[in-house]
Amino acid sequence: MSLLLRNALLLDVTTGEYTEADLRCAEGRVAETGHGLRAPEGTRVVDLAGAHVVPGLIDAHVHVTASTANLGSLRSMSPSYVAAHSARTMGDMLERGFTTVRDASGADFGLADAQAEGLIRGPRLLFCGKGLSQTGGHADFRGRGEHLNDDHPCCAGVGRVVDGVDAVRAAARDELRKGAHHIKLMASGGVASPTDRIDSTQFSMDELRAAVEEAEAANRYVAAHAYTARAVNRALEAGVRSIEHGNLIDDTSVELFLRHEAYLVPTLVTYWALQAEGREFGLSEQSWRKVDEVLEAGLVALERAARGGVRLAYGTDLLGGMHRHQNQEFRLRAEVQQPIDVLRAATTGAAELVGMAGELGTLAVGAHADLLVLDGNPLEDIDALADPKHIRHVVQAGAIA
């Protein structure tokens, strides 16, 4: 299968400059770029008439199995029912221009294999399996009166409860055994969990380090959910590669990000959406009241991190019917960043985070042929990405999707 795009404006995300050229895809990769490229027999040729072309987008924090904001209810749902919802969610993500996503707990090798084999439409799926939580932590969804927690591997929940260094090691090894691209730790309280506080720290330092050691032994890494500077800083000191959310970081956090060459994955849009629609899509009243604690701080944290030179990746963390707001994150970040910097977070930055620099997030020859054809220049108007109606074509693995 070969595809030739003629008369395009190709964006080099690293330099922020466009080049007028043709681009040819073959066998799922960018085969060549240049002027007057020849179309081999059987090649589909599309004249873009000067349209802007950018790399396919990468969302580094999604939950494709989260058909509801009531994450605790997923445990009692049929896995096949959850998979059906996930397939629709993934297809919609692809339509919005996201050709790769990193799932931050819930998705497993079954969904990743189904996408890779073409059984379902959707972005390339980099999964972690179930996130690891301490008792009473962010992925322990039991109410105060519940005493049983079904962590059977066939259940469709987003987390598993583990306590102690040995249990953390065993759980991390088990997720890695099943092909996890990374390990997810709940290192602080959160909005969607019923019995913790956002300002709590979770897991001991020895437990955090145990997960990092197991991930590194498998040439993988750890992503940690954390909000406050205290929780973020503990995770960074333990060797975590990416901090998810980080709404309440401080200047010490910035120093630690730089020292450890770690990444921050802000998820501003989820709080924007939860405040407006969370209860409509299953968020409990108790959890909804937590949203204000982190909503206003998110932009401040992003600005502090960007100003300090922290490595950034694009993330959304949307749940249930709120997934449709995935591109709104571009508009929110553009309040404190230049459009090219927001786009870098969703392309080269995210690709570097997941260990696929040069493979994803670029139009360079040899990279996966994932790209978007836009009606508009996102460097002049972020709405070209923030509103999916401006996406003329989504190309995935060299085919118009």
UniProtKB/TrEMBL annotation:
InterPro entries: Amidohydro-rel, Metal-dep_hydrolase_composite, Metal_Hydrolase, Metallo-dep_Hydrolase, OTAase-like. Residues 53-398 form the Amidohydrolase-related domain. It holds the Pfam family Amidohydro_1. This is Amidohydrolase family protein.
